[in-house]
Design a protein that fits this description.
homodimer; 214 residues; alpha+beta; Glutaredoxin; Glutathione S-transferase Yfyf (Class Pi), Chain A, domain 2; globular
């Protein structure tokens, strides 16, 4: 398998953790989001992934976009180290946590959005950073409420083994730290993030450990 | 089951279609996103759904947020009229189409985002509308490329029966029309949307048919 990836992309980071947890070997194909005006916008990449976003997982003839869809595909085709609970209610909870990050929080702070705010809307740097921190705070506060108040939260987001939810949480907290967001109000998230990053599969997926890291 | 819903919420619209396709009776509990400063922000609703977004599906003791997680839960617990293909590659394709809308396009044009642009960033009406149309165009163009070039696209997004992908497409095109977005470049999406809306399950889920429509 080849993973078209950018070291700092949090969507690619999620998939790297999944591949590592399942012990699946893969080749990294770097797609630099800033060089050459954005290598993800090149026609050859768009042919592989019309949304012009990373990651893309290539497995033989199959080219898959969208990190959550890729992870569920890996989970269905390589059931060892399952990334979703076995009961429908638990699966719904894990997917909802993951989607709170992947559908509500992350898209607003994606590179292309920050670029639009700066270049098209001519928003000042300070207002752009306020935007970033606003959505991080709103998103993480609601996640903290979901997790801190649930008896289903364990060492990880759902029980005592990592799931799809943790694969989304860790890259999101990496981004939050990178942009100096205040994490003092989200102790449950910080605790789970630390437990995850202590695992080799999470550690090896970190941006600074990637072949394209700079 | 109760669905906490707002007639114009496209995430709630997706779930309404799923419930109708599966023939599951439910009670609508209206959550008005504009009245009372936003009824979704009320403490009682936040207790049910800490993200303060609609929809929430309540089934006995279970309160579920996130439209895609809810729909997969319904699909797993009520397998008739399946909303995902049976093969992993097909499931990944359907999920990726759905997530292209739910993770990449829709979050940028959500009500809370438009409110932030207007009230916090003090963006002019015209620039706000340009933002809206920009993300609709980027999102729908990439979806059109995904669908028009695939032999797996049929009468619907994936083959000849509606799936999770169609449940996301129809509310997104409803929004695009409401905001006068140009749909001339996306004939495949328009064709599939029409095929969907001809089905009673989609028709009954339309915003103007809801008890809280105004």
């Amino acid at each position: 398998m080849q993973l078209y990836s950018y070291f700092r992309s949090s969507a690619a980071y999620r998939v790297r953790i999944a591949l590592n947890l399942k012990g699946l070997p893969y080749e990294t194909v770097p797609v630099h989001l800033l060089k050459d005006g954005g290598q993800q916008l090149a026609p050859a990449y768009r042919e592989l992934n019309p949304s012009a976003l990373v990651p893309t997982l290539v497995n033989g003839d199959l080219a898959l976009g969208q990190s959550l869809a890729i992870i569920e595909y890996l989970d269905e085709t390589h059931p060892q180290a399952p990334l979703l609970p076995s009961d429908p209610a638990g699966r719904a909870r894990v997917r909802a946590i993951a989607q709170s990050i992947a559908c509500d929080l992350h898209p607003l702070n994606n590179l292309r959005v920050l670029k639009y705010l700066k270049h098209e809307m001519k928003v000042e740097e300070e207002a752009k950073n306020a935007w970033y921190r606003h959505w991080v705070r709103v998103g993480l506060d609601s996640l903290e409420a979901m997790l801190a108040n649930s008896p289903q939260t364990g060492r990880f987001c759902h029980g005592d083994a990592p799931t799809l939810a943790d694969l989304c949480l860790v890259p999101q907290l990496y981004n939050a730290r990178r942009f100096d967001c205040d994490l003092s109000g989200v102790p449950t998230l910080v605790r789970i993030d630390e437990a995850c990053r202590a695992l080799p599969a999470f550690d090896a997926a970190a941006p600074e450990k990637q072949p394209d890291a700079q």
